[in-house]
Design goal:
36% of the residues lie in helices and 21% in strands. The chain has 321 residues and is α/β, with parallel strands linked by helices. It has a single domain, classed as Ribokinase (UDP-N-acetylmuramoyl-L-alanine:D-glutamate ligase, 3-Layer(aba) Sandwich), CATH 3.40.1190.20. It has an eight-stranded mixed β-sheet with strand order 4-1-9-10-11-12-13-14, with helices on both faces. Helix 4 (145-160) packs parallel to helix 5 (178-191), helix 8 (261-274) runs antiparallel to helix 9 and helix 9 packs across helix 10 (305-314). The longest helix is centred in the middle third of the chain and has 16 residues, at 145-160.
């Protein structure tokens, strides 16, 4: 096959004041490249899989800097659609320190990615041997109707070609309401072979119980075709498939770079899944990858396979059933 994984979504330029300054205090900003789907793509590529990232990007210096940063990590960006008509999306991130939480300000309206169309999908990879799995998120669905239609078209093509579909709800309340997100994610969640979401999204969007085991059971009732993979913050993660439900404690981790930790988890889990790992081992790959990412500045999942493999092997007996 051409690729193990294909992803599609918007990647932005993230601007952050030097820690510990707040945005209103800043006179300079540090620039990072960040987007959920490309973060996952980078993590998977660094773990050794063949990955392509699809998007629509502005043909200017900012757009090229973003794509260059993703390509530098081993991701194939040759299928990106370039345009001179639109802008690069930006977001500002201010790190929090208790009792003050972090803060995000989006400046992404009318970005190039928001104007992507199903016609932007490359025919060259839309074949039965194009990929093993496509990974999408609810963020793309929230950008615009045309972006949502593009993601749905890719998902439908993937299923027709016999690929697996991985879908991360990835709810962003700054982009749409909980009710709109639940409705907007329904089609892809109902098609997904693997459905990722944090417990808080399960509670907010699907009104599940707050108990993780009960929440996974409720999600399995709604989406019985999917393996439900639910992150629990500092408590680790839990997954349900058929009659099996497994919970994995979190690995000890620092707090240098919490942004992108969920994407690193997805990358680690999908790596385990695509390399033949059992459900419990895939959970360990996910939680170990998230912990590893917390030690790295920036959004991208700059994962290193062997150190993460060592973490996975060290905690083989740490699974709670």
């Amino acid at each position: 096959m051409s690729y193990d994984v294909i992803t599609l979504g918007e990647t932005m330029l993230r601007l952050s004041p030097p820690d510990p300054l707040r945005i209103e205090q800043a006179t300079s900003y540090e620039a990072h490249v960040g987007g959920s789907e490309s973060n996952v793509a980078v993590g998977l590529a660094r773990l050794g899989l063949r990955v392509a990232w699809l998007s629509r990007m502005t043909d200017n210096a900012l757009g090229h800097s973003i794509v260059n940063a993703i390509r530098a990590q081993g991701v194939d960006t040759s299928h990106v659609t370039w345009t001179a008509e639109d802008r690069v999306g930006l977001y500002f991130y201010e790190a929090g320190s208790a009792p003050r939480g972090g803060r995000v300000i989006y400046d992404r309206a009318n970005s190039a990615a928001a104007h992507m169309q199903p016609a932007d999908l490359p025919d060259s990879v839309m074949s039965s041997d194009g990929a093993r799995l496509v990974h999408l998120t609810g963020i793309t669905l929230a950008l615009s109707d045309s972006a949502a239609q593009t993601a749905l078209a890719l998902a439908q093509s993937a299923k027709q070609q016999g690929w697996q579909l991985s879908f991360d709800v990835n709810y962003r309340q700054l982009l749409w309401s909980a009710e709109a997100a639940r409705e907007g994610c329904q089609a892809l969640a109902a098609m997904a072979d693997i459905l990722f979401l944090p417990l808080r999204d399960a509670e907010n969007l699907y009104h599940t119980p707050s108990d993780p085991m009960a929440a996974v059971e409720r999600m399995q009732q709604m989406f019985p075709q999917a393996t439900i993979v639910m992150t629990l913050g500092d408590e680790g993660a839990i997954a349900g498939r058929g009659e099996t439900t497994l919970q994995q404690p979190a690995y000890p981790a620092g707090s240098v770079g919490r942004v992108g930790g969920g994407d690193a988890f997805v990358a680690g889990y999908l790596y385990g899944h695509l390399t033949g790992a059992s459900l419990d081992e895939a959970l360990r790959w996910g939680t170990a990858s998230a912990a590893y990412k917390y030690s790295i500045v920036g959004d991208m999942a700059l994962l290193d396979r062997e150190p993460i493999r060592q973490l996975v092997n060290q905690q083989q007996q740490g699974l709670v059933r």
